[in-house]
Amino acid sequence: MPVPRTSLRGFLAQAKGALRAAIDSSQKVTFVIGNESADLDSMTCSLLFAYLRSMSPPRDAFTPLYVPVTNIPSSGLSVRPEFLALFKYANIEPGHLITLDDLPDLSVIKSKLRPENTRWILVDHNALQGQLGQIYSERVAGVIDHHDDEGKMPKDTGSEPCIIKRTGSCTSLVTEYCRQAWDAPSEPATSSGAANSQGGSLLDDDAAVKRWDSEVAQLGLASILIDTSNLQSKYKTTKHDIKAVEYLEAKTMLWPQMSAGFDRNKFFQEIDSARRDIGGLGLQDILAKDYKQWNKGGQTLGISSVVKSIDFLQKKAHGESNDQSWQDAFFTALQSFSKGRRLDLYAVMTTSHSSDGEFQRELLVWAFDEKAVSAAKKFASDAREELGLDDWQDAEGTAHTQDEDSQWRVIWQQRHVQHSRKRVAPLLREAMS
Ligand SMILES: [Mn+2]
Known about the structure:
Keywords: Hydrolase, Manganese, Metal-binding. This protein is an alpha/beta fold.
């Protein structure tokens, strides 16, 4: 039985209820989970997929309801102001989101959510990382992603999707996959009091459906616009993104109250400035905000993406620790971030604009032991040309390479700015094997 048509807000309340039932009374559960950087794209992919799929699940679905999980603890929401900026368009609040805090504690998760009772659809990644990956990898039942294939996809996904395509935003692929179901006549809404009490208005009313569609469409629209710089990035924008934006914008406008005042450029600007507004965050939070981690060849690699320059990060570090030079304070902060996560290899990728508006990237790589040093040096020689790596210099013209037997640290200007973490991460992982 499909879930009757309801608002995203009502749906999330139902999904939380289903998750609780799964934990408390060993019910089956299907998760839709984004990657652990939990950026806007990952969050909206899981919401869109779970919401739309639950309205028309395949006949042989493991469970009719799909539970969207944002792959961070709820405390992580405080460093994602862009989520809050967007939630109001979707008529949801942070408390509606299902996060890792809604799953059982990792020490007992295996007994509370027995692997055989779960199924996992991965969106915006194609290999389940970390401790969830160790327990539930075998239960991955479908993938929609726009990263390099890590070779861990299930062989047969049956009626669940198995899609990896290079696009600006994974939300574009989710939209493409779900739009047929979205446009199909919806299951008649019921006036069941039980569902009403969960916060969803179930009026079988065309106007209500248009409003709900518009709210969900705006969620998806935001991610695609952010990931493609409002469709202006020539490196990132693909035809999938353009089509999905057209489709979602049309859905947004079908709600008469929205069609009068909606301005896509303004909408993009608002979400984008919220995302860039990280000045009030501490440096550790900035490094953790868009962070991913992998294990390869017995070593652990971490990569932080940051929307400000190295110069900004150094000043931030200095401001937080007045007794050290800018550089020392910065490197101390990176070291403590890496130690806390037991990293062998740590990279920081920055994006910023030069004074004359040119888009720039910097790449810092720090190897903390001999094995990691040799991987980092191999990466440097293998990837130098492709990424356009030039030595980075600070305002005083000083480079900051540190080379000792057991450690190596280097900062580059990455001239070939089309390459994001989607390319840099596979190159680093390759060098580690
Ligand atoms: Mn993505």
